[in-house]
Design brief:
Protein name: LLM class flavin-dependent oxidoreductase
Helix content: 40-55%
Shape: globular
CATH topology: TIM Barrel
Keywords: Flavoprotein, FMN, Monooxygenase, Oxidoreductase
Distance between the termini: 25 Å
Order of helices and strands: EEHEHEHEHEHHEEEHEHEHHHEHEHH
Radius of gyration: 20 Å
CATH architecture: Alpha-Beta Barrel
Organism: Streptomyces ureilyticus
Pfam family, one: Bac_luciferase
Length: 382
């Protein structure tokens, strides 16, 4: 069922992450700051507002379905590190909404740190400004310094998801209720609650990347888009993982969900050039100190992991925050994207080291190949 909204000028709008007819949907991640690569390479995205605004408008023109922020309240790698230079995601989303026409604008937020009453009002504001293109990428929070910043005690992994389930109960009531209500559960006791102004969508598009069994259950229950990170990049392994996610949503909650992957793009004229460029920015100029900080905070048993596994994980984070590798020529990349679609992947959330030049090269050389393969239709003018 299409979740469309009627706005003040009586035109009908829809949220493209939910409603796009493209077989393989696309979004861009990390575009409220310095991107998703951990490197000292000079091509790393600047993250200044002018560059972000240009990128948003170009993605909108190209028919890219989503523009997705990263939630970052404290930097990895110490005070002043570039990984902390990310704009607050709802303020950013309102600004992006005002300069675009059709792209879905996704605010990433740490459920454990933000009250659902604030989030309901902030997201409704973005929904109104965007004429119904708002969405949220839900994370439970996992970086201890961010909990310290907010003065909140970080719960154990499964307990954070239990809190998140009850957070969603409050948020969904605030989003949909037309009159005030009381609601009490184990973590919340809200009285005479109501959120105004009223949003346009019946529910914002919700994304989640929970990878643990408890995280997958949360995504299956609450989200429309679940991100998976396959242990093996082989398309057969991806297909099996996608099937697991879909089946969980169907069996436990009787619903269909989209399954997406995050991916980093390194596109050059030849495969050899792309591999050499990746080696330069990931290995030669990679930010090992920041990534070590990230891994230690994110992986509880990091210090006991085999060195080769640690090296592999470090490489993936430096490359593009652990995404699927799309490295090679335009033909290579289009072929891998086609394989992922055949494996059942509904969408890809893309990052580049140099977002603006990377997107332009992708648009001129990869998108036409995806159109020829029947995975995407040519973008209509905005």
């Amino acid at each position: 069922m299409r979740n469309v909204v009627t706005v003040n000028d009586n035109t009908v709008k829809s949220n493209p992450i939910r409603d796009s007819a493209n077989k393989l949907k696309l979004s861009i991640f990390g575009v409220n700051g310095t991107g998703a690569s951990f490197t000292h390479h000079p091509d790393r995205f600047s993250g200044d507002w002018d560059a972000i605004a240009r990128l948003a408008k170009r993605a909108d023109q190209l028919g890219i379905e989503g523009f997705v922020s990263a939630s970052r309240w404290r930097a990895f790698g110490g005070d002043g590190h570039y990984s902390g230079d990310f704009m607050e995601t709802f303020t950013w989303a309102g600004a992006i909404a005002a300069i675009t026409e059709r792209i879905s604008i996704i605010s990433t937020l740490p459920i454990s740190l933000l009250n659902p009453a604030f989030v309901a009002k902030a997201e409704a504001t973005v929904d109104i400004i965007s004429n119904g293109r708002a969405g949220m990428n839900l994370v439970c929070g996992w970086f201890p310094p961010e909990f310290d910043l907010f003065g909140v005690e970080m719960q154990e992994h499964n307990d954070r998801y239990g809190y998140a389930d009850e957070w969603m109960e409050v948020f969904d009531r605030l989003w949909s209720a037309d009159s005030s209500f009381d609601l009490k559960n184990a973590h919340f006791d809200v009285k005479n609650a109501l959120s105004q102004p009223r949003p346009l969508q019946s529910r914002p598009v919700l994304l989640n990347a929970g990878g643990s069994p408890r995280g997958r259950q949360f995504a299956a229950q609450h989200a429309e888009v679940a991100f998976t990170i396959p242990d093996d990049p082989d398309p057969r392994a991806v297909k099996a993982r996608v099937a697991e996610y879909r089946e969980e949503a169907r069996q436990k909650f009787g619903k269909e969900i989209q399954i997406w992957l995050s991916a980093y793009v390194v596109q050059k004229d030849t495969t050899a050039e792309a591999e050499a460029y990746a080696q330069d920015y990931i290995v030669t100029q990679g930010d090992d100190i920041a990534v070590a900080d990230l891994i230690e905070a994110n992986i509880p048993n990091a210090k006991t992991m085999p060195p080769e596994k640690m090296a592999e994980m470090s490489y993936e984070f430096k490359a593009g925050y652990g995404g699927y590798p799309l490295v090679g020529s335009a033909s290579d990349i289009a072929h891998r994207m086609s394989e992922l679609s055949e494996a059942g992947v509904d969408g890809l959330m893309l990052v580049w080291l140099d977002y603006e030049n990377g997107l332009e090269k992708f648009a001129s050389e990869v998108l036409p190949r995806l159109e020829e393969a029947g995975l995407r239709a040519p973008a209509t003018p905005v």
